[in-house]
Amino acid sequence: MSTSLPECFVVSSRLLSTAFVTASVHFVDGRVPTWCYTYSNGASLVRMASTRPDTDETTHEDLMLEGIRMSHPRKRQPLVIDLTKTCPLAKDIATSYEKLKELCMPASLKDLWSVDGEWLSRLDSTNWLNDVMTCLQVAVHAVVKMVQERKTVVIKEYDSRDMSCIISCLVQLILDPTYRTIIGFQNLIQREWVTMCHKYPDRLGHVRYTETEESPVFLMFLDCVWQMLQQFPSSFAFSETYLTALWDSAQVAIFETFLFNSPHQAFTAIRNNAAVNDPRHTDFLSVWDWSQQFEEEQLSLFMNPLYTAKHDIPVRTDTTTQRESCTNLENKSETSAQEEQHETDIIIPETTAALIRLWSQCYLRWLAPLQIIGGGAPTEYLQQCLLVEEILHLQNKLRSLESATPVTKETRPTSHLFFSSGFKHTPAKLSKDVLTSSFPFSPIGPSSRSILGTPLSVYMEKSILNFKMNDETNASDT
Q1: pLDDT in tens, 311-353
Q2: Widest distance between CA atoms in the chain
Q3: SS3 sequence, the chain?
Q4: pTM (2 decimals)?
Q5: 153-157 and 44-49 beta bridge pairing
Q6: How far is CA 225 from the centre of its chain?
Q7: Does residue 163 surpass a pLDDT of 90?
């Protein structure tokens, strides 16, 4: 039907396959409406390309929308959101990003200090944060229509390969906690971006030719996710470092995930690559195999300690409270109980301009003069990691007292956070690593002041934990 569609995709069962084949020639790149997600109340999210400019009639689009309406449990008319009118275009994002880069990556320290007095006004003039806010507002609007009005939402874009990726993912992140885990988030990107043919090499500049329009659409999405992470810090299993590392990886043209415009193009390239009888040819790498880039201890910085504390640490509940909860659940119908559970899983980000912030870790990390020595967000993050480890340590010690069994390193749960008992931290490493607001990224370039930083070992000074895990004599204390 179209090489810009995946091999398998979901469409309305109310229409025959022949209807889609016939209609596909009237849509841009043959991209007929495809299903993204269905909420618990039956409202769905669908993405659709526009009809071709040389197609005057709207018969085929109307037919597709009627099939979508018939697929709704209550046969409600879907709401069509035209993203070309409500969201920034790819070229608008590119313009905003160029202005942002000029502000956040000055050529010299002289240029940096020359705009310091008007830095905030220049940031506003880039329009980047306004574009981020607009994307979040459109996603929230779609969610409200799906949840409160139980309407199916169709997001429409010229070729459904740029802003449709952003909005479809944001809607699902708002509605479904599954996609706020690392595996769920990666699956979401793989499905809505890679499989649905976002033009990564074109947008990221991995290939260059006359008609290529570079635009960091993917970075705009990651920035929107970062904004949600700031507002709901315990709802995401990953940290901002994970998002930053993902953006860095997208700019390196070695991962299969970001090398192709479509699965068809990827399949053709991989097949041709395998057919080459050359020992020097290499297999394509997936960005999701993070062990190819980072060590295990570095990967621990991808984890969110607040999410671990909220979801993975068992909390003792009073038996009376448990009985009351069970009684309340028995008095509710199964449907209402499920709907109430789904509603509690929803996170609606606030989209007022006052709450939209600059993602400083991503954009300012290489500017040494702007680093906060011994402070910034990393101090909170590392303290949270340490607190989670201390909670796990105390819980393990309590269980050992109740069961009269000795405390050992083997019995202590592993959180996989930075100070996890499973990692072989040493005093030398903790003393060597220096803390600034750019941690774990190192600032580069000249600075008007020396960066002494704060060694990570300061976090150990008053901790109840013993991190000399290589010493057999201390194994019983950890």
Answers
A1: 888 776 555 555 555 555 556 555 555 566 667 899 999 999 9
A2: 80
A3: CCCCCCCCCCCCCCCCHHHHHHHHCCEHHHCCCEEEEECCCCCEEEEEECECCCCCCCHHHHHHHHHHHHHCCCCCCCEEEEHHHHCCCHHHHHHHHHHHHHHHCCCCHHHHHHCHHHHHHHHHHHCHHHHHHHHHHHHHHHHHHHHCCCCCEEEEECCCCCHHHHHHHHHHHHHCHHHHCHHHHHHHHHHHHHHCCCCHHHHHCCCCCCCCCCCCHHHHHHHHHHHHHHHCCCCCCECHHHHHHHHHHHCCCCEHHHCCCCHHHHHHHHHHHHHCCCCCCCCCECCCCHHHCCCHHHHHHHECHHHHHHHCCCCCCCHHHHHHHHHHHHCCCHHHHHHHHHHHHCCCCCCCHHHCCCCHHHHCCCEHHHCCECCCHHHHHHHHHHHHHHHHHHHHHHHHHHHCCCCCCCCCCCCCCCCCCCCCCCHHHHHHCEEECCCCCCCECCCCCCCCCEEHHHHHCCCCCCCCCCCHHHHHHC
A4: 0.89
A5: parallel
A6: 5
A7: yes
Site of tokens 């459109």: 138
Tokens 């700019």 — which residue? 251
